[in-house]
């Protein structure tokens, strides 16, 4: 599984990282690190919950 964060949509709410800190890292400005990131084993459900919690729809999940 992989998650992709669209930096143009991200507004820094940090809901994704609050729900899945092992999946969504924050950059130096407090936004979710942009780009595609592999989901660590066992973190699939937190990754999906984090994506659904994003109020900006900035996260896409692919398998
Ligand atoms: S929840 Fe969405 S808007 Fe907030 S930091 Fe994560 S990706 Fe960005």
Automatic annotation (TrEMBL):
<dbReference type="GO" id="GO:0051538">
    <property type="term" value="F:3 iron, 4 sulfur cluster binding"/>
</dbReference>
<keyword id="KW-0003">3Fe-4S</keyword>
<keyword id="KW-0411">Iron-sulfur</keyword>
<protein>
    <submittedName>
        <fullName>Ferredoxin</fullName>
    </submittedName>
</protein>
<dbReference type="GO" id="GO:0046872">
    <property type="term" value="F:metal ion binding"/>
</dbReference>
<keyword id="KW-0408">Iron</keyword>
<keyword id="KW-0249">Electron transport</keyword>
<keyword id="KW-0813">Transport</keyword>
<dbReference type="InterPro" id="IPR051269">
    <property type="entry name" value="Fe-S_cluster_ET"/>
</dbReference>
<keyword id="KW-0479">Metal-binding</keyword>
<dbReference type="Pfam" id="PF13459">
    <property type="entry name" value="Fer4_15"/>
</dbReference>
